[in-house]
Amino acid sequence: MAPAQHYFSEQPDPPSAPRTIRVRLPDVELDLVADAGVFSGRQLDTGTRILLKHAPPPPVEGDLLDLGCGYGPIALTLARRNPARQVWAVDVNERALALVERNAAAAGLSNVTACLPDQLPDPVRFAAIYSNPPIRIGKPALHALLLRWLARLAQDGAAWLVVQRNLGSDSLARWLAEQGYPTRRLHSERGYRILAVDPREP
Ligand SMILES: C[S@@+](CC[C@H](N)C(=O)[O-])C[C@H]1O[C@@H](n2cnc3c(N)ncnc32)[C@H](O)[C@@H]1O
To answer: 12, 58, 117, 180: which has the fewest Cβ within 10 Å?
Structure first.
């Protein structure tokens, strides 16, 4: 039997069915192309919208990371809001990465680089990480993923994650704190939490 397809497949099987997603935020308007086989390829995800409306600006100078970028709504919003910064958009889904490149070009955003995790140069550190993380990859993989990228925060950098309460946001916050990443609930809305992972917090 063929393995099940997920939005986090490296090369999704479903035939391409591009679709325009309208991102409408108080300060940013973007029309992005999404596709079958990519997370939330029919509309802007509710959690992503909440993250983009409530997560604060980066706390320090430096590059930004969208961890698990999908077709790029977070990365491209960050790039529009922070035109002088380099935004890294990382995903394992190659169809998603191609969409980010296409969407960045169409929006005239030259400060976005889409790449596979292992392609991101080792020395790069992040002033901030913004993520709607792939909870469905399972707890051990999710934990490893977060530890891998949080270790690359610059001094005084911070991360904001949107996680559904019924998918374990509160236990994830506790686990992050136990790993040495002070984490608090920044915002709660419609069953989603924004977790602020902020080493500057006591
Ligand atoms: C919940 S989706 C969010 C997508 C997009 N940021 C959005 O808001 O629409 C999580 C994304 O993480 C990606 N992902 C899964 N495993 C990953 C890994 N090990 N490294 C980076 N991204 C991964 C998935 O392919 C998926 O696109």
So the answer is: 180
Are the C-beta atoms of residues 22 and 107 closer than 8 Å to each other?
no
Q: Whose CA is nearest to atom 10 of ligand 1?
A: 134
User: What are the phi and psi torsion angles at 75 (to 5°)?
Assistant: -55, -45
How many other CB atoms are there within 10 angstroms of residue 191's CB atom?
13
In the chain, where are the structural domains located? 46-197
| Model pLDDT for residues 63-107, shown as the tens digit of each residue | 999 999 999 999 999 999 999 999 999 999 999 999 999 999 999
Residue 65 Cβ inside 6 Å of ligand 1? The answer reads no
In angstroms, what is the span from residue 199 Cα to ligand 1's centroid? 24
Q: How many CB atoms lie within 10 A of CB 148?
A: 11
The class that CATH gives domain 46-197 is alpha beta
159 in contact with ligand 1, CB cutoff 6 A: no
